[in-house]
Design a protein that fits this description.
Chain A: This is C-type cytochrome biogenesis protein CcmI. Chain A: Its main location: other. Chain A: It is found in: Cell envelope. The structure holds 2 protein chains of 2 kinds. Helices cover 72% and strands 0% of the residues of chain A. Chain A is mostly helical. Chain A has 3 domains: 50 residues; 160 residues, Serine Threonine Protein Phosphatase 5, Tetratricopeptide repeat; 65 residues, Serine Threonine Protein Phosphatase 5, Tetratricopeptide repeat (Alpha Horseshoe). Chain B is α+β, with helices and mostly antiparallel strands. Among the domains of chain B are: 159 residues, no CATH class; 108 residues, no CATH class. Chain B is 63% helix and 11% strand. The longest helix of chain B has 33 residues. Classes of the chains: A mainly alpha, B alpha+beta. The interface between A and B is large, with 80 and 82 residues.
Chain lengths: 388, 666
């Protein structure tokens, strides 16, 4: 649809540019003629004014003489325009511009535009707002249940509440939810690093002493905790110790076995700190040679095909891609990343039940993962976000 | 989809502007008619596509489409619809889009309405217009894209600035831009004339309506802006010599000079090179205004230096268009032949003085506006040039201008009889002196300059009316005949009378409201009575009231005069919770004689609101409404003149024939 409108606009532009071709053979209006006609109009005006008695006959006479003198001088100069020059070369240029304008505009548009992005009016986002209200209601109820629990509420419950607050951008609430459990004996390294993250977010990215303490405790328990390591580096950098921060990030990257999603953020942070220190930038590939995924995704051809489709066709196409993925997973059920992708795809398509099923499978597979693998966390998070 | 259509339409407009920059002007020099005529259709196409883009942006604002970054930054779903629409031009990007839209509208206007303009001149003019268009469209697309997208869209928009939720302000930028940008077409005509090497009466006739249209809307825009400041800001002032005001005032001053000098070119074939220069300078000042306001230079020179991309781009455009056109002027203007000769005492001479004074006044404002920017940039010193500077330097230039303005229309073309004119104005002079005396008697003192100003404003008003009366021979001939003569008078003549009288009326307002303003700032408890300008104002406490999207503290002020009730005023302080900000809503009792103006300032101290103690600002501003009445007359006069389809002819007077009964020229 969008491309049809664009094509129409482009045609319209080209049409406007071709219109002047109609004036082939007409006469150029001449500058001298124009001046003379204005001056003779002035003469008539003088006559009319004299008749109405607005100027005296004397004045009228003087004015007429002056205007006539001007007319004469115009005629004498007589730079009459040459007869219009027109012909094939001129019209070829006009045709060329009519062609070039849509092409140039199209090229510029491809640089600037986002043709695939839908426009969504505020009124059409009722469902989204309802969902937010619903989530807010659910968190409210969860909070009440946890508070009324005589045993202080389960640790996972408080952490789930805190994470939900984090996603809603209510960082202060997240901090107070998590605070309930950070002192407990079962507070793990992951819990403490999440708590530190909430504290830092609540303070607009500044690592406060309280956050620093939480980071320290998290690292004491598990020195390899990526989140804690990351925030320790941020803290060091903010304290003015960029070099140490950089070393810490690189050391953790070196120690990683296999690719992991957190590595990208590490590399970006290390390079941003490294730039001020004048150190060579590092690349993700240096630490995770197999990063990039070996599971086949849609080919470039598929993507190009999708871009040319109508909304309905595109939805059908995506659905067929998803079904292909689901089929492949039936043959290869141990592909954790594949199940996560499938769950995400169903979630986007709005099929909550199927999405849950896929994530549940992924969750079972994730149980065998090392505890610091963020994918387990990602799955839990995705499941908590599913409606119903 | 809609924003993307806007984006594509804008890209098309830029491509068309590029073609229009080159093809017609080449056609004009080669004598190729098809190429020349392409200016017409390209100008219309440009307007169409920029219009589509503008409509797309406006639609995004109206439905609160938060996938458009500009809407997120500058709107909110809770804004009333009118202000959602006004949000379209509230931002940097949107206002520039409006800028180019108006630019294209003036180009298309010439393409469509200028049917009597010769092909070559029209082609060159529209090409020059397209150069400006290309510069600003590329600026818009490359540095300030209004259709930048965000996904996923944030829950709601960020902006709910309550101060901007005012109808006056919503309409202010479009009007101001109409004037600002309108001078672009006059500039284009001037550059085209230089390229062609020909300026004459016909050229001036073709340019006249465009100059008038631009001048009128600039006048209306400035007046509306000052009216808004007066009602909304709560300080009771109507002009602050603020840089944002000055940059719109300077093109107005020069545009006024241009308007008058173009008359001489049209009627008498003189002042040609001067008119061209004024056309270039007026638009240059409009560009300078755009640059100063849009580059962020005003907030701080250093803020500009930190993120200079946008500012430098406009600065480049500014240098290119001003430098280029002035260089062209220096090259071509000397070859322009002089026109009709005139004696120093003549209508031409009067208009020359008018022009010189207006240019000097513009220079004064320019220095006062730019000087602080220079000292901050070069010496790292923040100084502010405020009203004292402008009052001391600007007013002494304007008073002689007003005095001469009264005489000018009575002078005849080519050579005039000054003694005869003064003889006719004897009565007017006497009345002016009496007016100043009467004001002196009525007021309890004031600056001498104020009495002088009153005398001069009266002089201008009565002389203008006198001139009009002479023209229709009011009192000389039977009334019915005078009415017939008035009907025969060109509309431009009525327009001039109205505009000049309007300025005189406005001067009464300027002087009255500044020289005899009474102001009191009092700390009041409920029941306290304040006396101001003969009024007794009783403060009856403050109530909390709930508005549609704000809560307000509303004060009640009972106003009496000599015990008789006059009115009750309800000034408010409004608090907008979403925007977390407070505005002042002043309460005004408006009469022709003057405004009683009350606003509620913050509670004097912490907890003072509970004890019922408030700071109250009460002003009495005599004659202040004359300012806006005068401005309306100026615009009306311009409109009358614009509607005049007739030609202007300057009938010179023969020196050899003495006239016992002087009849005004024209």
């Amino acid at each position: 649809m969008l491309w049809i409108v664009f094509a129409f606009l482009a045609l319209l532009a080209a049409g406007f540019l071709l219109l002047p071709l109609r004036s082939f053979g007409s006469k150029v209006s001449d500058r001298t003629d124009g001046s003379v006609s204005i001056l003779s109009d002035q003469l008539q005006e003088v006559d009319a004014d004299a008749e109405r008695g607005l100027i005296s006959p004397e004045e009228a006479r003087a004015a007429r003489i002056e205007i006539k003198r001007r007319i004469l001088s115009q005629e004498r100069k007589g730079q009459h325009a040459e007869p219009a020059r027109q012909g094939r070369p001129a019209s070829i240029v006009v045709w060329a511009t009519a062609l070039a304008v849509p092409v140039a505009a199209g090229a510029l548009y491809l640089q600037l535009g986002s043709p695939d992005m839908p426009s969504i009016a505020f009124a059409e986002r009722e469902a989204e707002r309802n969902q937010q209200v619903e989530i807010a209601g659910l968190t409210e109820r969860l909070l009440e249940r946890l508070q009324s629990d005589p045993g202080g509420g389960p640790t996972e419950g408080w952490m789930l509440l805190g994470q939900t607050y984090m996603r809603m951008g209510r960082y202060r609430d997240a901090v107070s939810a998590m605070e309930n459990v950070t002192g407990r004996p079962d507070a793990s390294s992951a819990i403490l690093s999440q708590y530190a993250e909430a504290l830092i977010a609540a303070d607009d990215g500044i690592v406060t002493p309280a956050a620093r303490e939480a980071i320290g405790r998290a690292r004491d328990m598990d020195p390899s905790n990526p989140a804690a390591t990351y925030y320790e580096a941020i803290a060091l950098d903010q304290a003015g110790d960029g070099a140490e921060a950089h070393d810490l990030l690189i050391a953790r990257l070196d120690a990683a076995n296999g690719p992991a999603p957190w590595m990208e953020a590490f590399v970006a942070q290390a390079n941003s700190i490294g730039e001020t220190l004048g150190r060579e930038p590092v690349s993700l590939a240096a630490f995770a040679p197999t990063a990039g995924g070996d599971t086949p995704g849609p080919t470039a051809g598929d993507v190009a095909a999708a871009a040319d489709m109508s909304e309905d066709d595109r939805a059908a196409f995506i659905r067929s891609m998803v079904e292909r993925l689901a089929e492949r997973l039936r043959d290869d059920p141990d592909d954790l990343d594949g199940w996560m992708r499938l769950g995400n795809a169903y979630r986007v398509l709005g099929e909550a039940a199927k999405a849950r099923e896929a994530y549940l499978t992924a969750n079972r597979l994730a149980e065998t993962l090392p505890p610091d693998d963020p994918r387990a966390q990602e799955i839990r998070q995705a499941m908590s976000e599913l409606p119903g | 989809m809609i924003p993307e259509i806007g984006q594509f339409a804008l890209a098309l407009a830029l491509a068309i502007a590029l073609v229009q920059s080159v093809l017609p002007i080449l056609g004009a020099s080669r004598g190729d008619l098809v190429w020349m005529r392409s200016a017409r259709t390209s100008a219309l196409a440009q307007l169409l596509f920029i219009g589509i883009a503008f409509a797309a942006l406006m639609r995004s604002f109206m439905v609160s489409d938060f996938t458009v970054a500009n809407v997120v930054e500058n709107s909110h779903s809770l804004k009333p619809m009118l202000f959602k629409i006004a949000g379209t031009w509230g931002s940097h990007e949107g206002s520039l889009l409006l800028w180019v839209l108006i630019l294209a509208a003036f180009g298309a206007g010439v393409a469509l309405l200028g049917t009597n303009i010769p092909d070559a001149l029209k082609a060159r003019t529209l090409s020059v217009q397209a150069w400006i268009s290309t510069g600003f469209l590329s600026f818009l697309l490359l540095t300030s894209n209004p259709f930048e997208r965000v996904f996923p869209p944030p829950p709601d928009g960020n902006d709910l600035n309550p101060l901007l939720q005012d109808v006056g302000l919503a309409m202010h930028p479009p009007l101001l831009y109409f004037g600002y940008v309108g001078f672009s077409i006059v500039f284009s005509f001037a550059v085209a004339a230089l390229l062609e090497g020909r300026v004459d009466a016909a050229w001036a006739r073709w340019v006249r309506p465009w100059t008038l249209a631009a001048w009128m809307s600039l006048t209306a825009g400035i007046a509306l802006g000052s009216w808004w400041a007066y009602y909304e800001l709560g300080w009771g002032g109507w002009w602050f010599w603020d840089p944002v005001e000055n940059v719109s005032f300077m093109p107005w001053l020069l545009g006024t000079a241009l308007l008058h000098s173009a008359i001489v070119t049209e009627k008498r074939d003189a002042f040609k090179s001067w008119t061209i220069l004024l056309a270039i300078l007026t638009f240059s000042l409009s560009l300078l205004g755009t640059f100063i306001v849009r580059s962020g230079l005003l907030t701080s020179v250093h803020a500009f230096a930190v993120d200079p991309e946008r500012g430098l781009y406009i600065l480049g455009l500014l240098g290119l268009s001003i430098g280029g056109s002035l260089a062209l002027y220096a090259w071509r203007a000397p070859s322009m032949e002089g026109g009709g000769l005139f004696a120093p005492i003549s209508r031409e001479g009067g208009l020359l003085i008018n022009n010189l004074l207006l240019v000097v006044a513009t220079g004064t404002v320019l220095v006062g506006t730019l000087y602080p920017l220079f000292t901050e940039a070069l010496a790292d010193q923040k100084i502010s040039v405020g009203p004292p500077f402008f009052n001391a330097s600007f007013i002494p230039i304007m008073l002689p201008l007003l005095a001469i303005m009264a005489v000018g229309p009575l002078l005849s073309w080519k050579r005039a009889d000054l003694k005869g004119v003064f003889q006719r104005l004897r009565f007017v002079a006497l009345m002016s002196g009496l007016a100043a005396l009467a004001v002196w008697y009525l007021t309890e003192g004031g600056p001498a300059l104020a009495y002088l100003s009153i005398a001069i404003a009266t002089w201008l008003l009565l002389a203008t009316l006198r001139e009009w009366a002479t023209r229709i021979r009011l009192f000389d001939v039977p009334f019915a005949q005078a009415v017939r003569r008035a009907r025969n008078l060109p509309r431009a003549a009525h327009g001039m009378t109205l505009a000049h009288a309007g300025l005189a009326v406005a001067v009464f307002g300027f002087v009255g409201s500044s020289a005899w303003k009474s102001e009191k700032i009092v700390f009041v408890q409920s029941g306290a009575v304040t006396e101001i300008a003969g009024f007794d104002v009783r403060f009856d406490g403050v109530q909390r009231v709930q508005g549609p999207n704000y809560v307000a503290d509303r004060g009640t002020l009972v106003v009496t005069r000599d015990g008789a009730p006059v009115t009750t005023l309800y000034p408010e302080r409004r608090f907008y919770p979403v925007a977390q900000s407070t505005t002042t809503e002043s309460a005004i009792r408006s009469t022709l004689a003057g405004d009683l103006y009350a606003s509620l300032a913050e509670p004097a101290a912490e907890g003072a609101a509970q004890s019922g103690a408030w700071t109250l600002r009460i002003l009495y501003e005599p004659l202040v409404n004359f300012i806006w009445i005068g401005a309306a007359l100026l615009v009306l006069g311009g409109g009358l003149s614009l509607s005049d389809r007739r030609l202007r002819v300057g009938a010179p007077r023969r020196a050899t024939i003495p006239k016992p009964q002087a009849t005004p020229a024209e």
